[in-house]
Design brief:
It is built from six helices and 15 strands. It is an alpha/beta fold and 263 residues long. The structure holds citrulline (CIR).
Length: 263
């Protein structure tokens, strides 16, 4: 089957999302839902089949579904979110993933999917923010069975590794200078965004090869177009107010078996 993206409904409790700074005015679930629909459409137009996981009012941050699991090839590792209020989000996500891939579960430590960046066969894991050494070790053990090379990356100021660096293709990353040490990406092409645009490097690679980026980041759109990438913009500003970017709103499964027996 083709590429699938899982997204999760925005709940009324979205007003109570974890935020690094108080949200003023309060977070707006209606506006977030509107933006979420546009985001889903952009994923579909780019070649994903979108599946929607029901929301749970008990978990305001559940729509940031990326943090709940890491999919590598045809297996998923159910994560253990690093913020205590987010523990317990993963049940319905695991149910949805179990229709598509094999399920493994991290049994200790802290790991957020937003800290895991896959580029080709390398799996970078950001450690120091929401993900700790035990969570990274669990991911490394999981990767070992999947013929992937895990690489730990210290994360200091960003919420997640992918807040400031994401993949453009199988050998290129889009990187913000404050996100992490550029040297960890030796051997890959590193495209740097302007240092005054910290959220600009969080983009989603669509199955059709285009790059989905935040609507406010015009300079990056021009930069990527100049490098030959097709770009498509999406406004997720209400989610940005809750510290979420484009990647965190979906779990993307790119390489599913041609015939899924689990459907
Ligand atoms: C949180 O603080 O956990 C949420 N409000 C935002 C999570 C964003 N996730 C991500 O960037 N992967």
């Amino acid at each position: 089957m083709g590429p699938v993206a899982l997204v999760r409904e925005v709940t009324d409790s979205f007003t109570r999302c974890v935020t690094r700074r108080p949200a003023v005015p309060p977070l707006d679930p209606k506006r977030a839902r509107h933006q979420h629909l546009r985001y889903r459409s952009a994923l579909e137009m780019g070649g994903f089949e979108v599946r929607v996981v029901p929301g749970d009012e008990a978990h305001p941050d559940g729509c940031f579904i990326e943090d709940a699991a890491v999919v590598v090839g045809e297996a998923a590792l159910i994560a253990r979110p690093g913020h205590p209020s987010r523990l317990g989000e993963s049940g319905p996500v695991a149910d949805a993933l179990s229709e598509l891939v094999d399920i493994h579960t991290l049994d200790h430590g802290a790991l957020d999917g937003g800290d895991v960046l896959q580029v080709g066969t390398t799996v970078f894991v950001g450690v120091g923010g929401r993900t700790d050494a035990a969570g990274a070790a669990g991911l490394e053990a999981f990767c070992g069975g999947m013929r992937r090379r895990p690489v730990r990356v210290p994360v200091e100021s960003a919420l997640h590794l992918k807040s400031g660096v994401t993949a453009l293709d199988e050998s290129s990353v889009l990187w913000h200078p404050d996100s992490c040490d550029r040297a960890v990406f030796a051997g890959l092409r590193v495209v740097a965004v302007e240092s005054d645009d910290p959220e600009a490097a969080n983009v989603v690679r669509l199955p059709d090869g285009r790059i989905l980026l935040g609507a406010a980041h015009h300079r990056v759109a021009d930069q990527l177009a100049g490098l030959g990438y097709g770009v498509v913009a999406c406004d997720t500003s209400e989610f940005a107010r809750a510290d979420g970017g484009l990647t965190c709103l979906s779990i993307r499964l790119r390489h599913l078996p041609s015939q899924s027996l689990r459907r």
